[in-house]
Amino acid sequence: MKVGIIGTGNMGGILIHSFIESEAVKSSNMIITNRTLAKAQKFQKKYSSLHIAGSAAKVAETADIIFICVKPREFYPLLHEIKRYLSANKVLISITSPITIDDLESIVSCQVARVVPSITNRTLSGCSLVTFGRNCSEVTKHKLEHLCSYISTPIQVEDKNIRAASDIASCGPAFFSFLLQRFIDGAVKQTDISKEQATRLTSEMIIGIAKLLENNVYSLQTLQEKVCVKGGVTGEGIKVLEEELGEIFEHVFEATHKKFKEDRENIIAQFYK
Q: What EC number(s) has UniProt assigned to this enzyme (predicted)?
């Protein structure tokens, strides 16, 4: 099985590293390309047997499973460029939420799917959000879920929930990294602790929380209950969070859905003009 990656930016790069390092795909069975070829060639310095293609069409012609890792507005011309190479036995995969299964199937006749990865997949953890096209065989579904399971926990998501699911699984690391940085900044501003020590303590704390959740020692709710002793210091901090956070996360989802709607309008104008 040959896996192709078109686009070697942040998420394409994560898939390249993760698939090879997890041994899901041998580097000799992977073929990649990028609009700026020099960016793709950098990966060959680490994985010498990795194949670099001179065009997206060559990736589509050679690979059995093709991941498209480009910006949403670049999909339409790219699909028209490669569609003649996409025979029925091939699988084309979008990794971006604004491109729907229907969008892909409106142009190509091969099997299609959407797999939205997360930066957490770089450590072979976190989720990948999977949606299968109508033409996907049961064999293909099993093959894709098995492939994704090397680097993540694959979770099937309906089209109507893809934006919310992406906000949590894919955008979530950025959102909570921002909050943790503000947490560190607050500690440094209000106390004598150094930024270096506050950062180390916060990093170790969040790793510890992840292990507690991973090992089913506590849930998110029981974590709060165990730490927040009635009348204690933690409770005072929780009061501030309750008072000042307000509807911040409702507003986050509102903003991301607004941008998603704008992206969809632009895509519809391209695909269905």
A: 1.5.1.2
Terminal Cα distance for the chain, rounded: 36
Residue 273 has pLDDT above 90, yes or no: no
Which residue numbers belong to the known binding site? 6-11
Judgement on whether residues 111 and 154 belong to the same structural domain of the protein: yes
DSSP 8-state code for residue 72: G
Which amino acids are annotated as binding site for NADP(+), given as ranges?
6-11
Residue 81 lies in a domain: yes
In a domain, 262, yes or no: no
Q: Is residue 265 part of a domain?
A: no
Q: Residue 230 above 90 pLDDT? A: no
Instruction: Give the domain extent around 234.
Output: 172-251
pLDDT for the residue numbered 8: 96
Q: Are residues 16 and 145 in the same domain?
A: yes
Q: Counting beta carbons within 10 angstroms of the beta carbon of residue 199, is it exposed (0 to 12), middle (13 to 18) or buried (19 or more)?
A: middle
Residue 216 located in a structural domain: yes
CA proximity to 95, closest of 148, 41, 172: 148
pLDDT of 231 > 90? The answer is no
**CB half-sphere exposure, 64, CA atoms < 13 A:** 9
Nearest Cα to 57, choosing from 80, 26, 91, 27?
A: 80
Domains: count for the chain: 2
- What share of the chain has pLDDT > 90, as a percent? 95
* pLDDT classification of 40: cutoffs 50, 70, 90: very high
Q: What's the rounded Cα separation, in Å, for the pair 198 and 180?
A: 10
